Amino acid sequence: MNYIVTGAAGFIGFHVTQKLLAQGQQVLGIDSINDYYAVSLKQDRLKKLGIQTDKLRYGEIAESGAFKNFQFIQLRIEEKDKLKDAVKGFILKHGPIGRIIHLAAQAGVRYSLQNPDAYISSNISAFLNILELCRSLAVPHLVYASSSSVYGMNARRPFSVHDGADHPVSLYAATKRSNELMAHTYSHLFNIPATGLRFFTVYGPWGRPDMAYYKFSRAIMKGEPIEIYNKGEMFRDFTYIDDIVEGILKASDHIPLPSPLFDPLNPDPSLSSAPYKIYNLGNNHSEKLQFFIETLEGALGKEAIKKYLPMQEGDVPATEADIEDTRQDLDWKPRTGIAEGLKNFAEWFTEYFKTDEL
Ligand SMILES: NC(=O)c1ccc[n+]([C@@H]2O[C@H](COP(=O)([O-])OP(=O)(O)OC[C@H]3O[C@@H](n4cnc5c(N)ncnc54)[C@H](O)[C@@H]3O)[C@@H](O)[C@H]2O)c1
Questions:
Q1: What is the pLDDT of residues 4-20, one digit of tens each?
Q2: CATH value at residue 121
């Protein structure tokens, strides 16, 4: 089948693309390769996918040298006409698009306080273009990334897709919730099957340098202090990348149907009379940050110098996923605990970064 994977140079998109290529699927990867974090890391991921990044020409499709079933285009998804042209070119050669897995976004909760415009552009305007693409090409299924951050002020745990998620505490979360609402509208109006996946703190090899576990690892290896917010009283449902990839691909194979259980007089937020569904993808086990750090120290073989700080604006003290629907509908369950996941991460991290390049 033909897939479009957006955010293919990003952490999750790279892993999803790798898996799809190994399955023999045809993939068009799209990514702007923006500089929110080290461009070199994004380029190295692309190189693993056989893309010669020094030969990339913005807006033009590049062929992978390693995978004949992979093409990549560097493009800002906001550029609607260029996006359409690129996808049309791909379809002429390879046939219709079976799935769009939309993972490109401006990620990060804290950065949304500094640069709100990036979130409206990448997460709202670009998302509209993806929906329009689905509409014009009658794409059989759109799968897109949402986030556990949509639960915001909701303190009822574990976080359930059946509970409301309308009190975001960061603009990032507001854009992700908006994506769910926009997808619902398109799903209802144009009968586009759409599945939103709320990821819970994803970690693993080739991870994101702006995330706490990555920053901690860098500081630990350099002998610098790590900053621990809310004085360590933080709980996170940490989810290993391989589990997330499996969840995304299972969701992609499961095209949602209108739900007969949807009651307009008492609307359940996760159901609809449109072909629309939301799932949590989390480890279903909230770890205390302190324990996560100890496990990371063990995996890296070095102790951290700890600096305790108050809670950060826009953050939530705890996340925990209720994954009952995901289990039932997708037959998905996380398999990787933090000891194994962090060991894999630490092995990659120490190999990728020779200490002097940290
Ligand atoms: N990693 C997590 O813990 C986590 C948790 C919840 C949700 N998510 C969501 O999952 C998705 C993937 O996250 P990730 O961790 O891989 O992030 P990432 O930043 O590594 O990947 C996102 C990629 O999208 C690209 N991109 C950004 N704006 C773009 C645009 N306008 N046009 C084209 N490309 C653009 C970036 O260059 C980047 O390579 C995102 O939607 C993110 O919000 C991630």
A1: 999 999 999 999 999 99
A2: 3.40.50.720
Mean pLDDT within 172-196: 98
- What is the tens place of the pLDDT at every residue in 252-305? 999 999 999 999 999 999 999 999 999 999 998 899 999 999 999 999 999 999
Give mean pLDDT, residues 59-81: 97
Instruction: Please tell me the distance from the alpha carbon of residue 86 to that of residue 354, in angstroms, as a whole number.
Output: 38
Residue 358 lies in a domain: no
What distance in angstroms lies between residue 7's CA and the mean position of ligand 1's atoms?
6
**For the chain, what is the domain count?**
1
Is the distance from the beta carbon of residue 78 to the nearest atom of ligand 1 less than 6 Å? yes
Token digits of residue 100: 């769009």
What's the per-residue H, E or C state across 66-122? Answer: CCCCEEEEECCCCCHHHHHHHHHHHHHHHCCCCEEEECCCCCCCCHHHHCHHHHHHH
Q: Which two tokens stand for residue 204?
A: 């693993």
Give residue 317's pLDDT. Answer: 86
Cβ atoms within 10 A of the Cβ of 76, count? Answer: 20
Closest C-alpha residue for ligand 1 atom 2: 202
In a domain, residue 46? The reply is no
Active-site residue numbers? 172
**Residue 234 belongs to some domain of the structure:** no
Residue 355 — pLDDT band, cuts 50, 70, 90? low
Range of the domain at 189: 105-200+241-282+322-334
